[in-house]
Amino acid sequence: MILFSPAFACCVLLALAASYVWACLASPLRQVPGPPSSLFTSWVLKWHEFRAGRTRYVHRLHLRYGPVVRIAPREVAFASAEGVKEIYGAGGSGYDKTEFYDLFQVYGRRTMFSTLNKQDHAKRKRVLADRYANTNVLRSASMDGIKERSKRFVDRCSKSIGGSIDLFVRSHFSPFLARIFLNSSQVFMIMLLTVSVIISSTPMGPTRFRTRKTRRSCGKSLSTIAFKVHRLLSYYNPGLHAIVKNILALFSKPRETPLADNLVLTATSKSDPLEFTLLSRMQDKNYDLEQLDMAAECTDHMAAGIDTTGDALCFLMWEISQPRSLHVQQRLQEEIQSTTPDTPFDKLPYLDAAVMEGLRCFPAIPMSLPRYVPPGGRTIDGYYIPGGTIVSAQAYSTHRIDRRVFPEPERFNPDRWLAEDGGDLDRKRLFFAFASGGRGCIGKHLALAEMKTLLIDVYSRYSTRPDESMTDGDMEMSDQLISSQPRGQKCWMKLVPFKEPS
Ligand code: HEM
After folding, report:
1. Looking at the domain 28-497, which fold is it?
2. Which PANTHER family match (predicted)?
3. Which residues line ligand 1 (CB under 6 A)?
């Protein structure tokens, strides 16, 4: 009978609680600096994550506790060059990804981005890597495609003269980036070209562009939040997710792209892709990929490339448009004017510095990129971390934490990248916008080519200014699952012709 008495139940609960506390106190992670609560519970971290504030929370902990900080009982964040090198560079590809990346499977398949272990990743990367090499991106056929689409984008923007445009909508839902991808056909497959055309003519294309007349404040959409909660819950607590998913489904609507999906699936079912395309590589019998794997990979690259480049451009142009940064805009315009139209985009040092500084201040993927410490544990940046612990670095913090390398880290200052102070190596070691190591961004060269081409086209013809309706809060970085967006989900700007007609 004693087994069913409340006193016995209390004793059992107390014993369980005591053994949990004992295990936490005995953990090697106790030696790692961090808030006391993080030794016992991950709920504080999750609370911030569900409220789209994880990046800032982790950064606050770094500011308080230093470049190595315990953020949960089995999770440690690093913001040092040593930490980044060990976690993302050890053995080439760094440590394995965690199940967090299950959330990024497409059509139920793992893509290069969502493969977890080194072996699977290396196998997939062998198929795809050469298509994204800088030499491929710089080929004139690719660059011509990028330039042509960039010009079209700027022409379209010119229709807003005298009014304002929403750059966030343009750079995310406009055909510009999609078309650039699709038209840099030496880099991408022809299939993507077709998809881009479709994207541009769907409701996500020009018909959704917002002008002053149609402006409405969309703010933070309930649907977006619910969708994110949906996915995070399925990762952290599948049991609870199974219970509440139907309720969440009432509020959350995933971004649907039925035409693009359909086209990707149709194109990958055909058997005669052009020789230079990703698809031709993936259809090579030696690689033994199913059609759905190829379609998933294509869709994933579009998603990985469009949102990130769009976010990065949006934040950078916004900053350049602020009164405090008008000198940056002027120097950019002067540099562009001092060159001939044939000057390659990568031969403009100030433009390069501005883009680097934009990616430093507003990395499109600012959040932790979680990895597992291999079995047996490792010593990382002076701390022993047991096997199976989740370790990560986030660009937002590596770009800010070391004030010797990045003085006045909150200030947008492209000149820091041009300083001849011997600090270039340190700056590059902490620059993490494209991550690093074997799992760093494969589309980096393409992204830089797109961003610089567009900036040249815009700032050779226009000056940009913020629209009066915008507030600083609208452009605060708000966490998505792994990337970030302007909190207000809008970025209204004015384009003023650079040379006023005389
Ligand atoms: C400014 C633009 C971009 C930024 C800031 C960016 C950033 C990143 C980062 C931080 C990662 C590592 C993510 C992780 O480890 O979890 C990554 C991976 C990746 N990115 Fe990008 N990216 C950009 C543009 C692009 C473009 C244009 C493409 C291609 C169309 C692309 C395709 C990929 C792919 C396929 C991966 C997975 C690589 C792998 O696992 O080996 N990205 N990107």
Report:
1. Cytochrome p450 (1.10.630)
2. CYTOCHROME P450, P450, PUTATIVE (EUROFUNG)-RELATED
3. 112-113, 125, 181, 301, 304-305, 308-309, 312, 363-365, 369, 433-435, 439, 441-443, 446-447
